[in-house]
Write a structure and sequence with these properties.
Strand 1 and strand 2 form a beta hairpin. The chain has four helices and two strands. The relative contact order is 0.08. The mean pLDDT is 80. Helix 1 packs across helix 3. It has a two-stranded antiparallel sheet. The chain is mainly alpha-helical.
């Protein structure tokens, strides 16, 4: 029989919320990744993701001293705001089920002559 001896300290550590926040704030600092921070504190990456989610639910998101909100200059009425323009809504479609079981989808406002040509083409294929 084969036996395995585990040498080392097995532990279950407890982290206070302020300790978790301090660790979470290290992510992104000087380019540190989640993996770097986890390795430095001898925890798994999953701990960091779970802590973020849990602290967010508690309303204790990690806020860094480096977070700065910059004021925006007031807009004058003649300036157009940089708001993205919504794409026009697609025309409503109609689905026609042909005698041969095929389906034809086309724009609702398609001219009748074009629709007849499409139906003939799909039925002959």
């Amino acid at each position: 029989m084969r036996h395995e001896v585990i040498v080392g300290v097995e532990r279950r550590r407890r982290w206070r919320d302020d300790e978790k926040q301090a660790i979470l704030e290290e992510v992104g600092m000087n380019g540190a990744t989640v993996t770097d921070v986890a390795r430095r504190h001898d925890i798994t990456r999953q701990h960091i993701y779970q802590w973020r989610r849990a602290l967010r639910r508690k309303g204790l998101e990690a806020v860094s001293d480096r977070t700065v909100f910059l004021p925006l200059p007031p807009q004058t009425s003649d300036e157009a705001p940089d708001v993205p323009v919504a794409a026009p809504a697609p025309a409503p479609e109609v689905e026609i089920i042909l005698r041969n079981g095929r389906r034809l989808r086309c724009a609702q406002d398609l001219p009748t002559a074009s629709l007849h040509h499409l139906i003939r083409a799909v039925e002959t294929i």
